[in-house]
Amino acid sequence: MHGPQLFLRYAFMPNRLGYCGSDDNTTLFEYGREGHVDAGLVELERHFEGAYPYLQLIAGANGLPDPLDERVVQAYWLGNDLLDGVDMASFYASVEQRFRSRATAPDWRWLATKVPAGARPHHSFHVLEIFPRVGMLSSGAVDHVVETMGSCIIRWGKVQAVEGDSLVVAAPRLILRDGRLMLTPPEPETVVRAYDGRGFLDSIGEGEWVSIHWGWACDRLSPGQRALLERYTRHNMALCNQTI
Fold first, then answer.
1. 112 within a domain of the structure (yes/no)
2. How many other C-beta atoms lie within 10 A of the C-beta of residue 168?
């Protein structure tokens, strides 16, 4: 799969919900349905101000000219060894440039420790660290914020049943227990895979693994991809729990 096509599978639902990217989620969806890549799709994806700078960081650190290279896109959303190729200085500089001015002084002191402690520029880092440290928890609505973080983090689920435009999957859920974030054992839940019979996973079957973002089944996962997604998610979660 081309990198821009892989990117849109994960970016579509938050874009549809109005959280990031341009206002043209219909066009993004049609690109996904058609499997087409051109300059128009690339331009749409450059508007994802949360994710695209991470792609630039990962690509640059690994000597790759295209931030939408498939390996780079997979590194950010799922995880692979390109994340380990991002040096600490570059990652720290990127985080500082993008987020220091948006965080309170106490929050920045906590956030500034994460890159030296071994954080990786994976989507889970942005959800678990940046999301709360730019003030999302300051309102005190912790339960709501954890629920939102749980929707935003990329999760893995095993398909138990295909029900029209939906899938029943067994997937872990992000919760806060005794002041620490953790993932529950897999629980049944229903996720969306299509609208009016049109989506990105037309031929998915029982027993397959899928990735989940904002209640949307994004893509199939190979066993190796699922393992990497869990590895980097748990790694960044452990660092988050040190200062939560």
1. no
2. 16
Average pLDDT, the chain: 93
Same domain, 158 and 91: no
Confidence of residue 136 (pLDDT cuts 50, 70, 90): low
For the chain, the domain total comes to: 2
Residue 33 belongs to domain spanning: 3-100
pTM above 0.85, yes or no: yes
